[in-house]
TrEMBL record:
Database matches in InterPro entries: Competence_ComEA_HhH (IPR004509), Hlx-hairpin-Hlx_DNA-bd_motif (IPR003583), PLD-like_dom (IPR025202), PLD_domain (IPR051406), PLipase_D/transphosphatidylase (IPR001736), RuvA_2-like (IPR010994)
CDD domains: PLDc_vPLD6_like
Keywords linked to the UniProt accession: Hydrolase, Lipid degradation, Lipid metabolism
Family according to the record: Belongs to the phospholipase D family. MitoPLD/Zucchini subfamily.
Organism: Durusdinium trenchii
Protein name in UniProt: Mitochondrial cardiolipin hydrolase
Chain intervals for the UniProt region annotation (Disordered): 1-20
Amino acid sequence: MGCQPSKDEDSSDASSSSTGLLNINEASVDELMSLPGIGRRRAEKIVAHRERQGPFHSAEELAEVQGIGQGLAGKVAEHVTFEDDDKPYQFFACLPGPFACCQSTVRCVQGSFGSCFGSGTEEALFFPDDEVKTGLSRLLELLRSARRQLDVAVFSISHKDLAAALLDAHRRGVTVRVLTDDMQAKQDNSLVPTLRRTLPVRMDDNEKMHMHHKFVVIDGATLLSGSLNWTHAAVERGNENLVVSQHPALCAEFTQEFRRLWQLFSEKSGPSTAPVGRFSGEVAVLFFPEPSMTNVQMILEELESARRSIEIAVFTLTLDLLVNALIKKHEAGLRVRIITDNRQAEVPGADAARLSKSGLEVRVDRSWYAMHHKFAVVDQKTIVNGSFNWTAQATKGNQEDAIIFRNYSTLASEFTAEFDRLWNSFQPYH
C-alpha cells in the first residue's frame, strides 16, 4: 500500500500558490490559458517545454518557449510564480521502512503505517547482499507490503525466496502478474514454470531479443527498478542495484509500460516499440526498443551537460554514440571514469579497449561473477539507471528501461559511493 493523503488535511489546487499567483510549473493547459496572451497552442507549448526541460525558474527561461519571446514572457511573469516547490504540503502516512523525507514537496508525518515516504524520496539497495541479507530482506518486505496488485517484469527469475513471495501474495488475495523472458524461462533453474502453474505469466517469443526489464510496481504506488535479476547469483554475488521510489510519475509510466507489454505478448497487437521519453519535473523515464534513437539522445544530452565529472558503471559498452561522448568529455578536461564487466569488455564491438587507448580511466572486475550495474553519475548530482545496457540491441531490440534522476544529489551520492567502492577493488583494464 503506497502513500495515502491523510483524511484530516485538506489539499488545495496544486497550481495555486500561497500568493494567489498561478504556479507555472504545476498549471494545466486550461489554467495557463487564463494568462494574458496565452491561447491553447502557446499553453500546450509551455507544458511540452516544461515536461521536456524541467521546471521554469525565471521569465528568461519562459521566453525560450517557441512563440513566447521576451515581451510576452515579461507580461506573463507578472501573473505567475516560478517556484517549483510552491504547492502546499500534504500529509501522508506511509509504509514502514528506513526512509528520510528529502527532495520532496510532501511533508511527512508518522501515521498508522510507520515511517514516511513522500514523492521524490528514493532508496537505493546495492548487491551483492551482506551477511545478514539486508537487501534481500528489504526487497521481500516491499513485496509483502502489496495489498492489491503486483506487476512484475523481470528478465530472469530463479531465486526461491522471491518467487515464493509472489505466490504468498497471490494467496493473500493480491493480483499478481508476471512478465519475463522466454529464453530465460527455459533454463534448468528457472522458477517460471512453477509460477505459471498458479499465476498469469506472459513472455516474449523472440530468441534473439529479450524482455530485459527488471522492475516491479506495487499497488500502483511503489516502483522497484534497476539492474537486479531475481537470481541467487545476482543477489548473493553480482554487482547490482535496485532503486525504490514512490514518485507518482515514475509509478504511472512503469504501470503503463507493463500494460503495453502485457497486451503485446498476449495478442501480438498494439505498439511494439516504446514511446518517446519526456521529463516530468526532474525525472524522465526511457523505455526501449525505440528505433528513432530519441530516448538514447536524452541520455546523450545528460552526458554532454557534464561540467566536472562522469562515472560510468555499465555491464556492456558497445554503443558508439554514447561512448564517443565520453571520449569528448575526457578531451575537454573532465574526469571520466568507467567500470565494466571483464568478460563483456572482450566481446566483439566492445569499446573498453578504445576508451582506454583514448586515455580514459577504465577498470574491470576480475571475478567469475558479473559487474552488472547499468548506471551513470553526472557531476555527482544526476543519475541514469535501469536495465539498459549501452548497446544497439538494448536500444532497438530489447524491452528495456532507464530513468534519469536529474539533480538528485542524495541518490547520486549513494551511487557515487558504490562506484568508488568498486573502483578501489577493481583492476585497470589491461
